[in-house]
Design goal:
Layout: E1 3-7, E2 17-23, E3 30-31, E4 36-41, E5 46-50, E6 55-60, E7 67-69, E8 73-78, H1 145-151, H2 155-163, H3 182-190, H4 248-263, E9 266-274, H5 276-291, H6 298-310, E10 318-321, E11 324-327, E12 333-335, E13 337-339, E14 342-344, E15 347-348, H7 356-371, E16 385-388, E17 408-412, E18 416-423, E19 429-444, H8 450-465
Helix pairs in contact: 6-7, 6-8
Amino acid sequence: MARIDVIMPQMGESIAEGTLSKWMKKVGDEVKRDEPIFEISTDKVDAEIPAPSAGVLAEIRVQEGQTVPIQTVVAVIETQVGAAVAPVPAAAAPSRPLTPASAPPVLRAPAAQAAPVVAAPLVRPLDRPAAPVAPAAGGNGAETGDERLRRLSTPLVRKIAAEHQVDIATIPGTGHAGRVTKRDILGYIESGAPAAASSTSSLPPAAPPSAPPSRLPPPSWPEGAPAASNAAWEATPWEGDRVEPMSRIRQLTAEHMIFSRRTSAHVTSYYEVDMSQIQRLREKNKKLYESRGVKLTYLGFIVKAIADNLRRHPVVNSAVQGTSIIYRGQINIGIAVALDWGLIVPVIKRADELSLLGVAKTMHDLADRARAKKLKPDEVQHGTFTITNPGTFGSYIGAPIINQPQVAILGVGAIEKRPKVVTMPDGADVIVPRMMTMLSLTYDHRVVDGADADRFFGDVKKMLESFPEDAV
């Protein structure tokens, strides 16, 4: 009989922790090698984790909803089927006292121990320590081990810190070994805490307020009217309501969307596009593509048109770094995929180098593996432009939020027959049914001017309305 530890895997180079979102097996269940036994959520991707060995799931040490550092033992498998199963402890007792830096952070308590949940507004700061960690004493100015660990945060966290002139070492971290996560720094900034003093200053950082205000500023009230408290803006459950905690992917999406609206100057342009040529090419080549195992969709043509035109309009394929513009050398197009448990954006790498068939195959593969939770972290990173397609649900058009740190996102509306005025060769105008759609381009006006966006958008429209047959 042997006991095999099941550990929290590292799902990417910059990922230091993961949330165990669901157990697919229970204690006492027989498991096969490489059979999925639990699901995890990280800052990058949701994934199913397979069993490292066949046997019986003898012990579960990390409950659903807990966030723990990588390499943490989450369960134990007995390799002998008839082995005794260890009982599940109410709470695993640590073998040694845990310090704040080594204690695994818990974002949500396990379901069996959860306190009654009270609904909170989407924009309230999530769990953060009440006060920052005081800097280590010492006259030589040397950085302590904890401070070094806090500084070893992800590039996104360091970027946010630089933009807001915040010293990461002064922020209490809830990540692995006290590292500062994106949630920590956004909550710290939104709490109204002042920017950290220079490292040469002898003054300690100011303590944050004991009760951080809501992320949304209070409204301005007419003179003489009584001011409302922040509690007036909180949602509270009423009789008959059902209250559920947000999933980790929903929390991350909410934070990312709020951060994007606060960061970029959003402007949206709308174009009506005649997709009749695309419809004709689809009908003509649909069976050929199906014989190769892929569907020829309208979205495939749109991705191809975007990829081919981004190279001609590099500012739309750029990113902002402080007061500099990064013109991306790669054209990596993210496609938003709506899942039952949230939204994920797998990325088609170097899309401009793919044929229409290559785009269609890659889209099909990424979407299937996204729904099966089989994506790798690298497959949802390094996008330079994003496309979202709400038209599949019947939406006429929408104004999507930019996917940071990109500067533009395309929204695709419903593609359907609508009346269109067409000028005949003899000059007469007639109303005919045409396959039409509305496209929206939301762009960051900090770096993309309206003229830049419209030139790019105009070229995309032109290509879609006269798509070359030899490109299919």
